[in-house]
């Protein structure tokens, strides 16, 4: 803790951490709609398509001016989104093919422009390549105002068009039947994803930006079934991953902030996939094991019930070894669980000294209920 306090008092660390938090919030919120609309690859395509805009913004401004670079990146990303929509509507290609084409072509153009910009020489182009993987240390206080403004605009649009975006995300056909401009709303969501990419260019770069869109939303999806809850939780996960990654990067030498932030966000996804209640792999494994045990116990209970019905005695004592032979496995664990629930009880059956089991009155009623349900139409 003593080593962390001086770190938190550093102006550079505070700036980077705040920028990472802003990125996490806007990426988390807008990533939810990308995930729900099954357009995760759209974020990847738009992030790569931002590179030509970065280079053109630099070439037009003649300097590493953040405003010009981010404006170019936004226009390039928006143009890429429109290109995808045009390909899908004017050709027989599916969306995934259109995204692959746009990603490859725009990124290739960006690499060519980046090479050209670097070949011009001079100190102005220094660090331009950092937009590929991000350079959080280059973020200035003034840059935070630009990032915050873009984020505020995106969040304002989400809040203002919440009902429309919600309907388009879950049931676009119904939204179209209601007369909503579905195409315009989908275009607005796509443009806002481009805005989120603009926010994250300096932090994580065009290559890793898609992770900040998808990872928080994918993690939040595991913990809630509500869209509102998912949006809030995704924003929290994104901001938390951003701040945590920034602090981890600041404590170690040579640790790039962007990739560390992405790794933290990926760790949140891994934990969510494993431990989220109801949907996590561990939770599902435990539930499946419990269900198998419950089913095995029910089968044993029904076997004892059927033996009693065959002998005309509902309290007929079934021999443990016979139950094992009938089920082909040890039934003692199932019998102990049934006993704990008050459905069976151990009994003696002279002159035999082997363990026997009989249904209690509660067990007889439960077995009859199961049999009645099985026989119901």
UniProtKB/TrEMBL annotation:
> Its membrane topology, per UniProt?
Multi-pass membrane protein
Q: Record keywords: Cytoplasm included? A: no
Query: Where mainly located?
Result: membrane
Among PANTHER family, the record links this protein to: ABC-TRANSPORTER METAL-BINDING PROTEIN, METAL TRANSPORT SYSTEM MEMBRANE PROTEIN CT_069-RELATED
Q: What's one GO BP annotation on this UniProt entry?
A: transmembrane transport
| SUPFAM superfamilies per the UniProt record, alphabetical | ABC transporter involved in vitamin B12 uptake, BtuC
Q: Which Pfam families match?
A: ABC-3
- Pull one GO CC term from this UniProt entry: ATP-binding cassette (ABC) transporter complex
Name this polypeptide is given = ABC transporter
Cross-referenced Gene3D superfamilies, in alphabetical order?
ABC transporter involved in vitamin B12 uptake, BtuC (1.10.3470.10)
User: Where found in the cell?
Assistant: Cell membrane
Q: Could you tell me the keywords of this UniProt record?
A: Cell membrane, Membrane, Transmembrane, Transmembrane helix, Transport
- For region Disordered, the annotated ranges are 346-377
Per the UniProt record, which residue ranges are transmembrane? 12-36, 45-63, 69-88, 97-117, 145-162, 182-215, 227-248, 260-282
Instruction: State the organism named in the record.
Output: Rhodobaculum claviforme
Q: What is the lineage of its organism?
A: Bacteria, Pseudomonadati, Pseudomonadota, Alphaproteobacteria, Rhodobacterales
Family assignment from sequence similarity: Belongs to the ABC-3 integral membrane protein family.
**Keyword Secreted applies:** no
């Amino acid at each position: 803790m003593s080593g962390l306090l001086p770190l938190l008092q550093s102006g550079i660390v505070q700036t980077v951490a705040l920028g990472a938090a802003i990125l996490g919030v806007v990426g988390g919120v807008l990533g939810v709609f990308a995930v729900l609309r099954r357009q995760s690859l759209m974020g990847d395509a738009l992030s790569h398509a931002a590179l030509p805009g970065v280079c053109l913004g630099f070439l037009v401004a003649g300097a590493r001016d953040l405003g010009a670079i981010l404006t170019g990146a936004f226009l390039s990303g928006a143009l890429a989104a429109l290109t995808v929509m045009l390909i899908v509507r004017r050709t027989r290609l599916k969306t995934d093919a259109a995204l692959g084409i746009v990603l490859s072509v725009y990124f290739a153009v960006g690499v060519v422009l980046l090479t050209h910009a670097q070949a011009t020489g001079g100190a102005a182009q220094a660090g331009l390549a950092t937009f590929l993987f991000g350079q959080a240390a280059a973020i200035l206080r003034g840059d935070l105002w630009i990032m915050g403004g873009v984020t505020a605009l995106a969040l304002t649009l989400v809040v203002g068009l919440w009902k429309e975006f919600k309907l388009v995300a879950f049931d676009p056909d119904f939204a179209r039947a209601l007369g909503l401009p579905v195409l315009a709303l989908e275009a607005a969501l796509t443009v806002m994803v481009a805005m989120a990419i603009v926010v994250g260019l300096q932090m994580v770069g065009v290559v890793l930006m898609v992770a900040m869109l998808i990872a928080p939303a994918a993690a939040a999806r595991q913990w809630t079934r509500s869209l509102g809850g998912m949006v809030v939780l995704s924003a929290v996960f994104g901001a938390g991953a951003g701040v945590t990654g920034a602090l981890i990067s600041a404590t170690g030498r040579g640790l790039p902030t962007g990739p560390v932030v992405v790794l933290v966000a990926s760790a949140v996804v891994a934990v969510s996939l494993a431990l989220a209640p109801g949907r996590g792999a561990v939770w599902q494994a435990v539930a499946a094991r419990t269900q198998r045990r419950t089913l095995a116990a029910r089968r044993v209970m029904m076997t004892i019930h059927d033996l009693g019905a065959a002998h005309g005695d509902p309290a007929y004592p079934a021999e443990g070894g016979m139950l094992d032979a009938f089920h082909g496995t040890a039934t003692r664990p199932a019998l102990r669980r049934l006993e704990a629930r008050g459905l069976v009880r151990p009994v003696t059956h002279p002159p035999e000294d082997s363990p026997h089991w009989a249904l209690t009155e509660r067990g007889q009623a439960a077995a009859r209920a199961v049999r009645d349900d099985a026989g119901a139409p």
